[in-house]
Amino acid sequence: MTTILNEGDSAGTTGAAQGSPVDAAPDPDKGTSRGRLVLRRFVRNKAALVCLALIVVLYFLAFCYPLFTQWTYDQQDYTSFLVPPGGTHWFGTDKIGTDMFAQVMRGLQKSLTIGLLVGIISTSFAALVGTTAGYFLGWTDRSLMWIVDLLLTLPSFLIIAICSPAFRGKTWLIFVGLLAVFQWMITARIVRGMTLTLKEREFVKAAKFMGQPARRIIFKHILPNMASLLIIDATINVGSAVLAETSLSFFGFGVQPPDVSLGTLISDGTESTLTYPWLFFIPAGFLVLFVLSVNFAGDGLRDALDPSSTKGRRKESKRKALGELRKAKFDVQTERRGMPAPQGEGKHR
Amino acid sequence: MTAADTLFEPAGGSSDVGPVLEVSDLAVSFPSESGRVQAVRGLSYQVSPGEVLGIVGESGSGKSVSSLAVMGLLPSQARISGSIKFQGRELIGLSDDQLSKIRGRKISMVFQDPLSALTPVYTVGDQIAEGLLVHGKGRVTKQAAAKRSVELLDLVGIPNAAERAKAFPHEFSGGMRQRAVIALAIANDPDLIIADEPTTALDVTVQAQVLEVLKTAQEVTGAGIVIITHDLGVVAGFADRLMVMYAGKAVETGHVDEVYQRPRMPYTLGLLGSIPRVDADEKQPLVPIEGQPPSLVDLPQGCPFAPRCPMAVDACLTDEPPLSEVDNSGDHYAACIRSDELGAVEVQADEASVAAAVDVAAEVFGVEVIGEPEVARIPRDQRTVVLDVRDMVKEYPVTKGVVFKRRIGTVHAVDGITFDIREGETLGVVGESGCGKTTTLMEILGLEKPMRGEISVLGQNVSALNGRSRKAVRRDMQVVFQDPMASLDPRMPIGDVIAEPMQVHGIDKEQIAKRIPELLKLVGLRREHADRYPAEFSGGQRQRIGIARALALEPKLVVLDEPVSALDVSIQAGVINLLDELKAKLGLSYLFVAHDLSVVRHIADRVAVMYLGKIVEIGDVDSVFSSPQHPYTQALLSAIPIPDPIKERARERIILTGDLPSPANPPSGCRFRTRCFLHASLPPEKQSKCIEVEPPRAVQAPDHEAACHYAEPRQVV
Ligand SMILES: Nc1ncnc2c1ncn2[C@@H]1O[C@H](COP(=O)(O)OP(=O)(O)OP(=O)(O)O)[C@@H](O)[C@H]1O
Ligand code: SF4
Ligand code: SF4
Ligand SMILES: [Mg+2]
Source organism's superkingdom (chain B) (predicted)? Predict the structure, then answer.
């Protein structure tokens, strides 16, 4: 599991000799710190900004939809079954006369929250566990990795299925926790591997010799340098959490009728894709819109954090990071199947 | 080298009288995102049989590209024009097939990185034999090829050649690999050898060996050699003619002696003045060439060196000066409109010599010797001790196995070293790679109790430190790393980089905000640089940022781990001057680790020479450099090239045989005895003392100690 780190270090020692802009480009505001620089760079990226706004709008819609329509998601209009979009039913109705607009919005509430929460929780947890294990090594590492391996070997689907009845009727947020618990482990291993390499880099040593405590080294130096990976991982997790919820719901766990999620709506709508397309395409469209927005916003954040990225190089660096992530995940999986890990604590200090 | 004569045809026998290689008006360009990169712009030169041409220039000046063009190894998107004639035959336009018949047989190449030139999965002997077989086309039998490859390895000085021919490249050390590559290069008795920075990746002692081997190779094959380097010292004693390149063009060419003694182009002059010299008796000013080479995408009109040239006048900006003859010498050409004036400045000096040229450089570039700090006037033993290291030991376990780790040995990385540093003083630590320099630094910086021995920083013993007092000590001791890219967090704007140590030590925000521009100014950067990221700076600038960070807390001691070895010479000079200046201004003490002894001679007050985890010689720089006592120091010093062709040719070189023994298994008695030339020359009864008794460090002269039973001074520079 040798992961190449950020794109920033591809430049050689005399990088600027190749015509980098080191000459005057006076910037009037001085003393800008990293936070403000990142914000400024993010704001400059219009696509990302629009997508972030879109997520906010989706949220707003999802929670405030009763303001716009007289229907609710669990109420049937017995005068109109399967009517196409139009009239008072903006998105049409389904076969028992429930208003699709209300259902999609209700579903969106669930899916947005599940997706974003699972994405953020699992990636942050992975980052925390991975860096802690990789940075401190020793027994901390061994016990954390033991937990990781244990969770990796457990059949997650089955466990969620078994646990689901116990939580039936309780808040579906528990479900978020369950999904997150089974999504962080592989990333944690990758993060641990990257931490091992980053730890040997001179800037980390420099911080250590400055007297910077370990906790701050992790937050100031190690995490920002794997931001690309973490952000991509989080955006992928958002999408896969929504889908995982869908498949669980399909088998009758997770969100249960009369409550709905985008996942349940889509799976209900699949059989009528050709006959009553709105039942499928409208919730699916919202899902795509949501996942795409998250992706673009994530991209923007990654670019803002990555000083070497310019518009031109963005695609390439994303492809690179994605490739690394896939490869690393693959490596972790082969390693789990009992093959020796090509990387390890080869270096003793 | 008796075998050599039978191996090769007598020199010059087959080739014509004309030049082996004749390059005229060569131009190479590459497409890039911002436009065409004009990597080489009209280059002409010739190499006669048996002649050594040195090509010198900064990184990116087109040295490698021009030689790759000769080899026909440029990528396909490169556009080439002009003419390259090899033994009268035009090479440009030949198909790859035809070229490969010439390549490897008549022209061969030695690269900077020997590992990339050898295939890891074949033994070294097989690879050489393969080269012979491919070009021998049936005339050479397998057995003959194998036998010959052993002879070649022997010729390049690989001990036990028959045995080692069966080894794989990764089993060779860097120096041996480079020698194997040279063996490969001369296997087919080529008429031209191109060596691109053949010694840059190697230690000085190994560099001397490799240059010696190249010389032998040249003698036995009678080939013309093109040697590319960025270090004027390397080629001084080896090359016959020199060509200085700048921005894809030759800016000065001529006989080496001429170019070194009477440089007629400010760039050459600057390069010459930027090299610190081991043979300098008194402190010489170093010439930094400010700025960076121009972008090769769209060069401005006029002389490409004008933006960095201290002599530039308006006329320089109108046309690019062509190479023109200077001093009616017939062989010496320079591309500068003011070269005659340079000649005039020099006439004031009575005799042309490199030293005179260096003085002219200092004058033209307007640099002066940097003074000593105030405290340096107080006698050494009355100054406070900033760092005191006693008998420090650091060992690493060697383990085997993955699940059950077994300890199978111990690496004695640092084995009992003792030294101290006083206020306002610089101690230089030198030694080959792997001798324990970095381990020593890391032990000191770690501020943990050493395995054995004691470390005291500013009078505080580190084993008695607790969390808080350790942090307080860290404030007074800062570090600058070797690789200026790796030591700055690529994701942090440099304002934050410099602020970090101050934040750690709880200095309030306003004060930090005030201090950042001050620090940037101190190291020669501008305040608006604060919100750029490290990748936007050049190597030299990044190193300045690293220095600014180290100085943020006004430390007493700065530990520098090879701070200039990753930089080009002209940029290195600027950083060394900065360090010198800061020391004079702020009264700092430096612990300066370097493998380049000339840099140490320039910057250090005292020097410690390390070999296999021990200090073999320590003392005042002038005393150690002018009369080294330990054979190892003598060998190290004699391996340093001096950028003066006449001195260099007259010098006798002590070539160390073999490589550093493994620190896991050091020789008994004196650790240096396996490579010691003095030991080898001793009668057996004296030798036994070296084998049995470890020599203690003994005082040889005031402030000068060496650890050798038979120490005696010897002048080598
Ligand atoms: N394949 C390529 N594609 C595009 N540009 C190239 C290519 N190879 C070299 N260059 C450019 O050509 C110029 C000259 O490069 P070259 O490698 O000859 O420099 P050099 O003098 O050998 O430097 P160094 O001392 O670093 O080896 C540089 O600006 C470099 O970026
Ligand atoms: S031509 Fe002018 S700018 Fe160029 S090197 Fe000569 S003096 Fe300097
Ligand atoms: S003690 Fe003997 S082996 Fe060691 S350096 Fe002196 S002469 Fe050489
Ligand atoms: Mg090169």
Answer: Bacteria
